[in-house]
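fwd from M.: "can u put these together and see what the complex looks like"

so here's what she sent:
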Amino acid sequence: MTYDLLSGVRIIESSAFIAAPLCGLTLAQYGADVIRFDLIGGGIDYGRLPCVPGGRSIYWTSLNKGKRSIAIDIRKPEGRELLQALVTAPGDRGGILLTNVPAEFLSHRTLSLRRPDLISCTIEGNSDGSTAVDYTVNCATGYPMLTGRGSRDAPVNHVLPAWDVACAYQAAFGLTVAIDARRRTGSGQTLRIALSDVAFGVMSHLGLLTEAALRLPEREAIGNDIYGAFGRDFVTSDHQRIMVAAVSLRQWKALVQACGLTDAIAAVEGAVGVHFDQEADRFEGRAIISGLIQRFVGAKPFATIAESFNRSGVCWGLYRSVSELVSEDSRVSAANPVFTQIETPGVGAHLAAGASIRFTQMPRGQTSPAPLLGQHTDEVLNEVLGLSSASIGELHGRAVVAGPERDPWRSTATAPPVS
Amino acid sequence: MTYDLLSGVRIIESSAFIAAPLCGLTLAQYGADVIRFDLIGGGIDYGRLPCVPGGRSIYWTSLNKGKRSIAIDIRKPEGRELLQALVTAPGDRGGILLTNVPAEFLSHRTLSLRRPDLISCTIEGNSDGSTAVDYTVNCATGYPMLTGRGSRDAPVNHVLPAWDVACAYQAAFGLTVAIDARRRTGSGQTLRIALSDVAFGVMSHLGLLTEAALRLPEREAIGNDIYGAFGRDFVTSDHQRIMVAAVSLRQWKALVQACGLTDAIAAVEGAVGVHFDQEADRFEGRAIISGLIQRFVGAKPFATIAESFNRSGVCWGLYRSVSELVSEDSRVSAANPVFTQIETPGVGAHLAAGASIRFTQMPRGQTSPAPLLGQHTDEVLNEVLGLSSASIGELHGRAVVAGPERDPWRSTATAPPVS
C-alpha cells in the first residue's frame, strides 16, 4: 500500500472488468485490506488482454495490485457460506462488500441478516438493473458525435473507459463516506452506483445537459480545438506535434508573447472588433489565432519552440505514443515518487503507480504487486474467520477453496521475470 | 445536498476550471458545507462558455451547485486575512482548504501556523508545479493516437475532460480519507494531486504502461472496436447506429443467439480454428464477427433489432446526440431519482444531477442550484467568523467583501426564468 490511512478497513471484493476492481485498488493503495474473491482458476477477466506472451494478464494484475486473493468455488454451498462469512465477519471497520457481479447469496438483504450494519456497494450498468458497459453508455452521451471529426454518421468512441474510471473513484469516495457515517450512527448502508448515472451526472455537472435542454445551438465536432477557450494542436518544422492551451488569461498572454504575436493580435482585434483577452472571443476567433500560431510554430524546430514556450510560461504538451510516454517522459519514471519498480509474479519487473495523491506529511510506502489467485486463501480463512489449519485443509480437500497452486499461470509466475 | 452524510464538514474552495470545482461539488452533494470563495465580480471562469444568451455561465452554475458563495477582494490585505480566517476557523470538521490556485497567503505552511491540524488539498498540473491542463496532459498519454482513426500525424483528442473528472473524484476521496485520519490522529494533512499523475496512474492501473514497458506489440487505433474483447458500432436498415458489446461470455452468447448466428459462428470456428467463447479469440476475429453481425443488423429496422436484442439480453446502446439524450432518454429525466428539476438564478429551470450514488437506505434530498456570487457573504462571515452586522457592514463599505448585488448577472438572475 502507498499510505497507511484506511488501516483496519476490510473490504471483500467480488468483481470483474474495470470499475469495481479500480475502486478496490484505490482503497487498497490507501491502506484498506481489500480481499478479492475469485473463482478457482480465475473469473471471467483473469486472462483478459493484454497478456504477457504465454503468461498472465497485464490487465488483471494492474487492476489488482496490493489486494489479497482468496479462491473459492461458489458453486458449492460451502463456498457460498464461506464468502458470506467473510463479508459479515466481525470488526468495526469490516463488514463491507464491493461488487459488480450481483448474486442473491451476496445481496444486501441476505447478508444484513448476518450483519445488520453491513455496507454494500454495487456497481451496475443502468439503475434499473439492465446491462450496460462503458461503451454502451458512452454512445448515448453524445460525445462520440463531438470527438475528433465525429458526426452522426461517423461517431468516434473514446478509448479510455472514462466512465468506468469516474465510477471507480466515486465508489471509493462513497464507501469512505459510508464507513464514516456508520461509525457515527451505527447504521449500515446500501450504495448503488450505475455507470449511466455516473456518465450523465458528469455531463450535468459540466453543463452539457442544461445547454441542450435550454436549446442553445447544438455543439459540433471541432477536432482538437478546445471548446469555450483557445487551444489546439500545432506542428513544428521538424514534424513534432504539440498541444497548446490558453485557458486562463495568463496562459493566453504567455502564448502571444512567446509567439511574438503581440502586434499581430492587437491588429486583428482592432480590425475585427474582438477582445481576445476574453475567453469567448478567443474561442470564436480560434481559426484566426490558430493560423497565426501555426505560422510561428511551423517555422521552427521543436527544440526552439519548447525552449521559447517554457521561458514564457506557455501551457503546452508534446504528443506521444504510449511507448514514448514510457520511455521518454520523466513523469513516468522512478524519478516520480508516484511510480515505483515492482515485480509482479508472471509478468516481471515493471514500473507501477501507487496512490496518485501525495500526502506530503506521511511516509509513502511501496506499491505492492497483484497476488496470485488464492495466494492468501489460507491466511484469510485463518485471520478473518479463525479457521484452524485442519479445517482449512479439509476445505482444500473438498475443493471448496484453493491456494496459488491452482492459479493457471503459477508456472510462469515462478519462472524468471520477463523483462 | 443529496445526502446528509458529511454534515459538519466545512471546506473552503478557492478554485477555477473543472477538477477542483467538481471535487467541491461532490463533497457538497454528500452533505459538506462547501464555501466557494470568488473575487468580487467573479474569477476567471465565472463567464465561461456555454452561457445563457446574455446571461450566466451554464458551465459555472453547473459545477457550483449547492455551494455557498463568498465574494472577497483578496488584493486587499484585509481580504486575504478574512480568507485565511475562514480556512482556519475552529470546528473539528472545519479547517479544510481545496484549491487549484496556489497563493502564498493560502499555502499550507502559512495557514498551518494558525491551525496546525489544517487539511489542504492542492490540485496541480504537474507534480513539479509546472502548468498543465487536461488537454496538455492528454496529448502525452498516447490515447489521441489510439482514438477513432487517430494516428501520429492526426491524433484525436478526447472531448470529455476525463482526467479532470478522474482527478476531482480522487481528490474528494482523498479529502474524506484525510478527514477520517485527522479524527483518529489529530494530525493535519497536505494533499497534492497532479493531473499528470492522475492520468498516468490510471494508465498504469489499466495496464497500458506495463504493456508498453514490456515491449509488447504497440496498440493501433481500431476505430470504435473495443480492445481485447468484442464490440463495435453497427447500423440498422433505417440508419440508426448502435453500439454492441460482448465483453462477458453471457453477453457474447446472447448476441450470437439474437442474431441467429449460432450455426454460422460454429462453422467459422471450425473452419478457422478459433474459439470465440474466448475473449481474446473474439478480439482477434472481430472483423469476421462484425461482418456477420452487420448483415443481420443492417437488414432490419431499429425497432426490430432493439426488441430482439432486449429479449436475448444483448448488451447494446443507441448512439444519441446530447440533445437526443436530453429529450429522448428516460435515464436523463425526472423519472430517474438522480435527476431533479431545479431553478438556477439567471439560467432558468432545468434538470440537474445530484449525487450519482444512491444510498438506498437514506432519504434523498433535493439538488440545490448554484449561488449568486457573494450570496452567502454575510451569513458566512457571521456564522463562521462570528462577525457582527456592523463589522460586516464596514467590510462592505471598504469594498473588502461584496454580496450578490455585485454579481454581474444579478439582473438576469432576478428576471423570469429562461426556459
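replying to her w this: The mean pLDDT of chain B is 96.
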